Amino acid sequence: xxxxxxxxxxxxxxxxxxxxxxxxxxxxxxxxxxxxxxxxxxxxxxxxxxxxxxxxxxxxxxxxxxxxxxxxxxxxxxxxxxxxxxxxxxxxxxxxxxxxxxxxxxxxxxxxxxxxxxxxxxxxxxxxxxxxxxxxxxxxxxxxxxxxxxxxxxxxxxxxxxxxxxxxxxxxxxxxxxxxxxxxxxxxxxxxxxxxxxxxxxxxxxxxxxxxxxxxxxxxxxxxxxxxxxxxxxxxxxxxxxxxxxxxxxxxxxxxxxxxxxxxxxxxxxxxxxxxxxxxxxxxxxxxxxxxxxxxxxxxxxxxxxxxxxxxxxxxxxxxxxxxxxxxxxxxxxxxxxxxxxxxxxxxxxxxxxxxxxxxxxxxxxxxxxxxxxxxxxxxxxxxxxxxxxxxxxxxxxxxxxx
Amino acid sequence: xxxxxxxxxxxxxxxxxxxxxxxxxxxxxxxxxxxxxxxxxxxxxxxxxxxxxxxxxxxxxxxxxxxxxxxxxxxxxxxxxxxxxxxxxxxxxxxxxxxxxxxxxxxxxxxxxxxxxxxxxxxxxxxxxxxxxxxxxxxxxxxxxxxxxxxxxxxxxxxxxxxxxxxxxxxxxxxxxxxxxxxxxxxxxxxxxxxxxxxxxxxxxxxxxxxxxxxxxxxxxxxxxxxxxxxxxxxxxxxxxxxxxxxxxxxxxxxxxxxxxxxxxxxxxxxxxxxxxxxxxxxxxxxxxxxxxxxxxxxxxxxxxxxxxxxxxxxxxxxxxxxxxxxxxxxxxxxxxxxxxxxxxxxxxxxxxxxxxxxxxxxxxxxxxxxxxxxxxxxxxxxxxxxxxxxxxxxxxxxxxxxxxxxxxxxxxxxxxxxxxxxxxxxxxxxxxxxxxxxxxxxxxxxxxxxxxxxxxxxxxxxxxxxxxxxx
Lengths: 403, 472
Known about the structure:
- The complex is a heterodimer of chains A (403) and B (472).
- Helix content of chain A is 34%, strand content 24%.
- Chain A is α+β, with helices and mostly antiparallel strands and 403 residues long.
- In chain A, helix 11 (305-315) runs antiparallel to helix 12.
- Chain A is globular, with a radius of gyration of 21 Å.
- By secondary structure, chain B is α+β, with helices and mostly antiparallel strands.
- Chain B folds into five domains: 3-89, Uridine Diphospho-n-acetylenolpyruvylglucosamine Reductase, domain 2; 103-213, Uridine Diphospho-n-acetylenolpyruvylglucosamine Reductase, domain 3 (2-Layer Sandwich); 215-327, Alpha-Beta Plaits (2-Layer Sandwich), CATH 3.30.70.2190; 333-418, Alpha-Beta Plaits, CATH 3.30.70.2740; 430-461, no CATH class.
- In chain B, 34% of the residues lie in helices and 21% in strands.
- Chain B has 16 helices and 20 strands.
- The radius of gyration of chain B is 22 Å and the shape is globular.
- Chain B starts with a helix and ends in a 27-residue tail after the last helix.
- The relative contact order of chain B is 0.11.
- Chains A and B meet through strand 9, strand 11, helix 9, strand 16 and helix 14 of A and strand 9, helix 7, helix 8, helix 10 and helix 16 of B.
């Protein structure tokens, strides 16, 4: 079977467009959206299951499939518009490659997702994994103006557009951002950019967890406008104590004004990070999320952070934990049996807190699902949408768990 | 509309909330788009989510199409119903259910007027950011349907960036709750998908939005330019400097003339080719420093004069002309075709030249007032629809302007929606496959396509997508 699929893919994509992964599974690496859609159409017609991959640096490439489809050859920055602050980028482009290219032209994508710098843009968009900058610049969806997606049956859908304001037609892009590939494989993304910030200053405060989270709430109440305000567990912050990290990004004037005010709100002692260590510090925080096989996020409102961190500490552990102190997003990385994760999801749901499984080995994803329990009626709707975008159920993606 | 159906609707909402006489229906025969008129079969005005559900259930069982409507201020013909459809007016559902200053969230019914929400939040030092020009009349439910914008969306985003949770009555009368107050969805981002669906996925009966703190310091500046190009270049220079103003609005000479000749006169220089209205907000010292940079950039790009205001009264005066520009244009002619298109910001100078060329060729009066920071144009054509020749020229000119914007890499609408007005333009920017995907997604919410039928997606231009199993 595997040889047949390999041969069919080679006939479709040529020798450079197909390879075998470490286990011998045929892996298609299309380098255009059209080629990607042809692979999906073939799989749909033949009833083959597709494992969706980027650079395999976030979700482990272990979903069951007859073939893997990787976006790694879709790695071109197709266009950048410094005057319009937009870019069109293929999904397999590593974030670091994109960052450098944009910086060369004075632009910046305000996303600092967890994981390694070589993580693909498509992975960040498909999993909607925003990092600490979500506080000041919004979740992943706010940076995506449109995208081209190959559906499970090989249709090519071009959602959204390349302009920063657009309400033409239904907003199909929103379904793809954070859809975990369940509604198609993202081939290209239109991004909203910012001018490269003139100033980028990070300050740290250390102390007991609840003291820091209370201080963070005071800062939000005092209308300080950091780009990031992140509470980091000792292991994640590589510190003896919990760390509250405030990152101010923008014009010199705005950053200086906020840094001055930071000292006057509350009692915390803030230490500025030397400028040459800022990138390394945040890079370490991002990579910290790979310190265990499972990463999950919980959405909470500001006041609920302490209680929810207690649940995490009690039911899981306090190892690699971060909390967006203003936007109320908690991220945990570690290892735990499925039953315990299920209990956390239940406990969170009882408090109206959604838990999303961001990354985990396939058996955990299959058992729990990225989203797990839906509210009443939502499951049927999601089912109809999945069936619309993947009628043959070719995409091996576990949005819901197998209870 | 059958007497049986009218009687059944009256049993749900009470007879005084059902309108079916021709004179009563006239109020609902148009929205803010002057070129489309259609009388609905009947208007029903539910007073609660439960009544909306009962009405929708009745229409589901009788297979009658329906159109949800807020204040009817929409500009794309989206809230107008055909005679075979029931128009569900949501204006009675105008209660703000909760304002929580700690979590900065408000929960409200769809008929709440946009400006009233900000008034209610103001006591807590908060406000609701999206501020369409019609904010004194338009409803938040309508804003959700259209994904409405407004001047202050440059920095803070449009409606979709501020809605976190929705309770929706689907066309089969089932009720679902989408999103969560935290903003983290329970599953795929169905709130994001629903916002801007123009009433074709269902009816939002409860809306939870994010409120933002009122900025501690605000500075409004008015700069006037002798060329539109100079003003456009100033906009790009400010953004390139890393400054994101809360708002950056442009008005051309015709618009300024209309404002200054009206009771809304704001003291704008009538000899300028364009004026820019720029608002900065944030901490006081940052606003001051960024303000100095903006003034210097404006002067470098040829601003003749820059006026600045920081007190609420002075700022209100600078804003008055912009906010009332559409009203002022009402003096020029009986009808106003308010257009809405988007171009990449860098294309602004060229597209303004194109619009001027089109205006001259068709002998029209066009006033431009627009959100320059995000390239969202509003070329407004004053006309009298009783003059068929003039109305014909307006139609053709609108079409040409839209084609020019699409050619420049833009979009056919930035904040007003497609409705019925722009449905013919949809194939200009979306291929048959993508239009088919839109239709298929709509059918996941509304298999029988009874919610606001005939809008947004031109069915003849869609490639066929299979309907989901178990679905008609």
